[in-house]
Amino acid sequence: MINLNSVSSLLPISHCELVLIHVTPVGDETKITERLSREISPYLNGEVHVTQSGKLLYNKLIQLVQMHYGLSSTTVTGIPMKEEQNASSSANYDVELLHPSAAHDDLMKSAHSDGLVIASKEGLPTESVTLKWCTPKSNIVELQYCTCAARITPVDVNSRPSSCLTNFLLSGRAVMLEQPRKSGTKVISHMLASHGGEIFIHAINTARSLLEDPPSISEGCGGRVTDYRINDFKEFMKENRLAPALPDMLSTGINYLDRAKTHLERMSRFWPLVIGETIIFNMASHIDPLPTIIVKEKLDDEDVLECQKAIYHVVGMESRNEPLPTSSAGTRGKGPKRDEQYKQMWAELENLIRAHADSSPQHQRVLECLLKCKKPSDDVKSSPSSTKEEKQETNTDQNYAWKELDRFQKMTEKEKQEMNKSEGGPSSVKKSRLSTDDTQFKSKAGASNLLSLWTDRIKSVHSKRHVEFSGRAQSDGNQAELYQNLNKQLQENSGMDVSTPPQKGMGIQKKM
User: 3-state class of 408 per DSSP?
Assistant: First the structure.
């Protein structure tokens, strides 16, 4: 027996992958099931695949080749090509290419990769990236800044579109490939060109080149952004500087580096980068010192009181309908309405406080104060049945108020004066009803509108000239019994039983 390890001319095998493919005729069923790759020994892995013969076997082999060599697929769409039967007309064809996956690394990292990956048009059980054919030029091969170049091979080598594309590229011409986009500017991300008789796909850098000037701080990945919070970031850096630990600090056993990381994470837990994306940090003079207090690890009662004062101040601003300081950079027109601005401000303030609410019970108290002062969101929907009932009750209150308004407007000046001077009588029942209905409606509506303003005015007028009779307020029906003690004395003098109900005419009653 020959010891292969002693033979120096042989290359030692460190690991082996055994792939078994069971092929059956088209349409036949097999009793063998596929097995995923599993370790048989430290030097051997095995897997089993099942496929049918013909085209399906070819697709299975292409899939295994892609997995083994780390290949990706690119489909070049919209290639203009003359018809074989009619040379005067042309049609667009698609050609699928295989190449190393490194050619797609920059493309998948970009923000425009959505919608580029589709199923293989050649019927392969893999996915492919679609790139659109651009008008070729002859002088672009050496002028592009490329980040990767990889050899390519067509999936269907013998097809006419693949042969025409191969011959076109081998003639010394290059083709630019762009990302198919529905809107926006054209983005050319790849190029097909031949070098030394071999065809390569080149990945063109779509971001800023390293050979250009370095970007300014006002330019970001998504375009030119000019409203970064640069001054606030300077202050943030000053407040979170690291300093070398003193020798006596090292002997305490406390990991000061982890404590510094925890402090930095707490300080930057909610920190918008752009001025246009924040409202509360643009109105620091109105909510100070809440942003600086809420980021503390622990709060005392005085800190909670200061935060509550800041929240109440914002509530007062909203009640006075004061404008909020908003950034006008990049906006056209009048911008959002004031109600929408306050809604955004409350949502942002809640996100800031909620981010630190778990730090201590005092932080939770600040959050509870905010939730009490914040108006309920319009997104909170009640059940359909309750919503329907509230709408019906609101419509009833509105109809009654509008009827009162129409009746008041139809009155003459003399009748209006008599109505304002009148007291008591049947009108007081209407006043009481209006006051009750108004209270019920305001508890449902909450917001100020035309109906609430009108009912408030009517209520204030009635309250000035009318005081509800205490007997009527305590009675059950529409009649109140007057001088009840006098009625008892009359019954005692006449020798009647007090428990006997009085006859008609003996009591003194007032009809309402």
Answer: helix
Copy the structure tokens of residue 403. 């009827």
Tokens standing for residue 478 = 């529409």
* Dist CA 6 CA 171 (whole Å): 51
**Residues paired with residue 80 on neighbouring β-strands, in sequence order:** 92
Residue with tokens 């303030």: 349
In contact, 349 and 263? CB cutoff 8 Å = no
Task: Compute CA 210 distance to the chain's CA centroid, rounded to the nearest angstrom.
Answer: 34
Distances (CA, A) of 205 to 73, 107, 189, 202: 19, 9, 7, 10
* Long-range CB contacts (within 8 A, 24+) of 461-465: 461/420, 462/431, 462/434, 462/435, 465/420, 465/421, 465/423
**Which helix (H) or strand (E) is 414 found in, with range?**
helix 413-421
| 116-124 own/partner pairs: CB under 8 Å, 24+ apart | 116/179, 116/180, 118/75, 120/73, 120/75, 120/96, 120/155, 121/75, 121/94, 121/96, 122/59, 122/96, 122/155, 122/156, 123/55, 123/59, 124/59, 124/62, 124/63, 124/73, 124/96, 124/155
Phi/psi for 477 (5° steps) reads -100, -150
The predicted model scores a pTM of 0.42
- Residue 397 backbone dihedrals phi, psi, to 5 degrees: -65, -40
462: exposed, middle or buried (Cβ count in 10 Å: 0-12, 13-18, 19+) = middle
Q: In this structure, are residues 297 and 266 in contact, taking their beta carbons and an 8 Å threshold?
A: yes
Nearest of 94, 178, 174, 78 to residue 131 by alpha carbon: 178
Q: Among candidates 445, 446, 458, which has minimal Cα distance to 405?
A: 458
Per-10-residue mean pLDDT of the chain, 512 residues long, equals: 67 87 88 88 90 87 88 88 69 88 81 70 80 71 76 88 89 85 75 89 76 57 66 88 80 82 88 84 84 88 89 87 67 63 87 88 89 66 47 54 63 64 45 47 52 78 70 70 72 60 46 45
- The dihedral over CA atoms of 170, 172, 173, 179, expressed in degrees to the nearest 10, equals 60
Residue 71's identity, in one-letter code, is: L
